[in-house]
Every structure is written in structure tokens, then in C-alpha cells.
Amino acid sequence: MSPVAVLVNLNARRGSPRVGHLVREVLPRAEVAVTSSLDDARRFLHDQVSGRPPSLILSGGGDGTAVAIWNELRAMNVDIPPLGLLRLGTGNGLANVTGAPKARTALERIAALRGVVPPVRGFRLLESEGRIAPFAGTGWDAQIVADFKAWQATLPPGVQGMNAGLRGYLNALFLRTIPRQLFGDGPAHVRAVNLGDDAFTLDDQDRVVPIPGARKGTVLYEGLASVASGATTTEWGFGFRAFPHAHRVPDRLSVRVYGAKVLEATSKMFKLWRGERVPKMHDFFTTGIRFELDREVPFQIGGDVIGPRRVIELRLSEQRVGLVDWDRLPS
Question: Is the pLDDT confidence value at 68 over 70?
Fold first, then answer.
């Protein structure tokens, strides 16, 4: 059994057969799969992990590939080995958080360890509708992903690749999402109900403080919500620090509800991107949250839009995962 298994997702932005050849060149003893579908990935994981797990899995794709691997292994009821992110996706949120270098550099640094398990950083995940992920929610985050995919589908195949990264998401934001908010229904109305342990929030100096009486069943927020999401990691992708306080309270979800309308939010886009304090942003820390909305809105789990919802529940999962901490790996 190889100590390393590598899954390369051909549907990732930078996934290609060439990456598979590179992996085999740098890690000749690794078990490698170049997959183009979830079924391919599932078969590889069953063959390589079930009953004889490797000491490390390298995920050649974006956040969605990592989330798919975690959920498949969880469904197999096996211990999830540490996961190393290869920077091949679109947003690369988890790769950014863990300091992942370019794919070739990452592979060479793993090869230099000669079978020793690299430093690992532990993460909690959230759970929703039976799936685990580092972030999930509704509002502009889900709408932009849906608009991006719809916009990409209208482009010729030769043009899609040039608009698959941040440029493509910004085009979707300004050409589809913002106009829809301006001339459509605007933000939905939401009730955010605490489903877990006593909740915390941030005071005016960004200090974590308990919310008096915020037990299970307490309404933590009621009003407009352009975004209503939760996460256990700080970044959503592209360097966007959507949850800058995600690691401040151990064993709690970072829940954010943003109540500003589109013009106000657009004027503060760069502050939002950097994770700075802005008016009408509400932060909560809890083990579970239910969003009750006044209409159906797009819902994403781990960056994958799974459909419209009026009621969304997010809970802190018991699942703990390890991600290679590239910043601590000798260069």
C-alpha cells in the first residue's frame, strides 16, 4: 500500500492529465487517480481507502473536490486521513487558508518527506442536510456561484477557461447578481434561530462576549439578509475573508448575517473582501443555527449550489479533519 493517494479532478479549473503525469513523476510510489466524475472518484476511494487507508491523501482540485472526498469517506465509515490541498481549483479557499504552494512545489515538498506524515492542522466542519463542509449558506455567496455557472454555460468552450477564475466571478457578480438585486426582489427576510449551546457575539471592540439568555430557541437576528451563512474556516475563496473570526471561539460555528442592500454592499466591497468591520454585519458563534426565510433562495454547501431553500439548518459536525499545514512544512 502506498503511503500517499492522489486524486486529480479533471473538472477543476487547473485539473488535467498533465497534472496526473506530474504526480507520477514526482511521487512514483503514490496511488494516482485522474477522475472526471464523482463515480470515478468514489471507486478510487473505495479501492484505495476502504480497509487500507493511506497516511495522506492529496486532493487535486478546489474546495469542492476536498468536500466530495470528505463526504465519500464519511459515507464509507472509515477514518479520514489527513488531506493536502493541491492548488488546482477556482477559489482555492482551503488551499489559501493552509498556505498551499503551486502544485509542483507541493508535490516536491511531500516527496522530500520520504514517507513521513507532514504537519497537520485540525479543522472542525459544519453539517447540513447530511453533508459536511467548511462553509455553507444562502444569499449572495450562493447566488454568485449560481450566476457564475449559468454565465459560463453561455460562453464558447474556448472562452470558458479564460473566465473561470476571479475574473469570471466578478463578471457574474456585476452582470447578473447585482442587477438582479437592484431590479428584483432585493434581500430576503430571515429569522436566525439558535439551535445549539448558548451563543456568543462580538462587541464594538470586536471582543467575543456572551449574548445574555441566548439559549436554544432564541432568535439571534430578524430582518433583511443579503447573506446568511456559517463556516469553520476564515476564507470563502479568492482571498475573500468572509468569516474573519471563524477560529476565535473553539467548537463553535462562525455565523454571519449581513443586512445591507446591494448598493451599500458594493460601496464597501473591498472592506468586506478584507474581512473588516462594516455596518449591518452581525456575527454569532453557536453550535447550530436555523435560517427561516420568507422566500426560496439559492443554498450552497462548500461552494456547491444544491438548490433553493426556505429553511436552512447548519450544525457543528462531530467530524474533525486534518489538513496539511504547508506553512509548517520545510521548504
Answer: yes
